[in-house]
């Protein structure tokens, strides 16, 4: 086999696995390097559960892998401003719950099983190092997710986040909540699927224990949920500049979150990682077509980024109490009816999720 038929991938998360599967099916010999001891992405984030707007059927058709079995339509999603809440209709936004990591029921496990029998070799506990950057082999794909050291090595602009994470088993499925409060710049986020939960309270500034205590009290008071296994964490997201999305870095291809295929407003990243895994494989054989596809899926990133920097951060997030009073005045039930019956197209365009979800279909 000639060197042009060999592909090197750094990262055994969902986007790296999708790229590997598609390339191996084309007859390429693929080597996947992963800094962790196994597949499934960073152990900082995974195992985990997430909620994302996605059309799993169309996405499966695009990436060439049937992933419908691991996406579960969300039954209920409650949005809280302090203690005031309303239900965001999951069907109106195409919300699905999915599990990440290496548990048997996860998306990553499904993809790893698809790798079996193909010419894909895994080298675990094998990181992308600074000394490797200047001598990457041809046909290299970098799918290192949210690893801060790789962003520094590649000089990719990123925004730091800080927060508290809790995860574990729970007798609850296909439910999610989001909580906004002035103690954080982002939100609190609980999602459940496959009798597993992931709970994250995060911000772009340090999150003191007092903010976590406030969130814990909120969860107990409003949901009857309490966890005692919180861990402090910090990481990065590629939403630092309006032109963050990039498919190529010098002689390498980027895919997944590190390519910037992430919603800048609420930080949805699942759909973007899925489609860019396929696009990265295409970039090895047809760079021009891959570039066109990548630009198609991320074409609204700048607009969404500017919306966040102006209306979202300066108005919506800075005036939680005003929003709370608005909900109280209008009434939660009326808001829910409006959302259920109304046209959510504007919100879909603002969020600009890359992928074949209802938010970005063409």
Summarize the structure.
By secondary structure, the protein is an alpha/beta fold. The protein has helices at 14-25, 56-63, 90-93, 107-115, 130-133, 148-154, 209-223, 270-285, 287-297, 301-316, 320-330, 332-341, 345-351; strands at residues 6-10, 29-34, 48-53, 72-73, 76-81, 84-87, 95-100, 120-124, 140-142, 159-169, 175-180, 187-193, 196-203, 231-237, 248-249, 252-254. It is globular and about 65 Å long.
Give an overview of the whole structure.
- The chain is an alpha/beta fold and 362 residues long.
- It contains 13 helices and 16 strands.
- The protein has helices at 14-25, 56-63, 90-93, 107-115, 130-133, 148-154, 209-223, 270-285, 287-297, 301-316, 320-330, 332-341, 345-351; strands spanning 6-10, 29-34, 48-53, 72-73, 76-81, 84-87, 95-100, 120-124, 140-142, 159-169, 175-180, 187-193, 196-203, 231-237, 248-249, 252-254.
- It is globular, with a radius of gyration of 20 Å.
């Amino acid at each position: 086999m000639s060197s042009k038929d060999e592909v090197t991938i750094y990262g055994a998360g969902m986007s790296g696995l999708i790229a590997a599967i598609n390339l191996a099916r084309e007859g390429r010999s693929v080597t996947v390097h992963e800094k962790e001891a196994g597949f499934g992405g960073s152990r900082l984030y995974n195992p985990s559960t997430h909620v994302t707007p996605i059309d799993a059927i169309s996405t499966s058709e695009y990436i060439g892998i049937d992933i419908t079995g691991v996406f579960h339509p969300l039954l209920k999603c409650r949005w809280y401003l302090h203690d005031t809440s309303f239900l965001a209709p999951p069907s109106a936004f195409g919300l699905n719950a999915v599990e990440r990591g290496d548990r048997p029921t996860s998306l990553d496990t499904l993809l790893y099983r698809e790798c079996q029998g193909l010419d894909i070799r895994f080298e675990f506990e094998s990181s992308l190092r600074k000394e490797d950057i200047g001598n990457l082999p041809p046909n290299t794909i970098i799918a290192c997710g949210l690893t801060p050291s790789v962003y520094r090595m590649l000089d990719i602009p990123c925004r730091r986040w800080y927060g508290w994470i809790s995860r574990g088993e729970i007798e609850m499925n296909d439910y999610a909540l989001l909580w906004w409060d002035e103690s954080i710049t982002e939100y609190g986020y609980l999602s459940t699927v496959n009798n597993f939960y992931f709970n994250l309270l995060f911000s772009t500034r340090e999150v003191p224990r007092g903010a976590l205590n406030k969130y814990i009290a909120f969860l107990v008071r409003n949901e009857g949920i309490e966890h005692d296994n919180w861990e402090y964490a910090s990481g990065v997201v590629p939403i630092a500049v309006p032109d963050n999305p990039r498919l190529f870095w010098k002689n390498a291809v980027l895919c997944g979150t590190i390519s910037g295929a992430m919603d800048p407003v609420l930080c949805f990243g699942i759909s973007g990682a899925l489609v860019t895994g396929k696009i990265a494989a295409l970039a090895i054989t047809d760079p021009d077509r891959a570039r066109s596809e990548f630009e198609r899926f991320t074409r609204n990133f700048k607009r969404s980024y500017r919306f966040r920097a102006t209306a979202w951060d300066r108005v919506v997030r800075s005036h939680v109490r005003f929003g709370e009073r608005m909900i109280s005045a209008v009434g939660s039930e009326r808001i829910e009816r409006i959302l259920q019956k109304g046209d959510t197209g504007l919100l879909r365009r603002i969020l600009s999720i890359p992928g074949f979800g209802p938010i970005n279909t063409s």
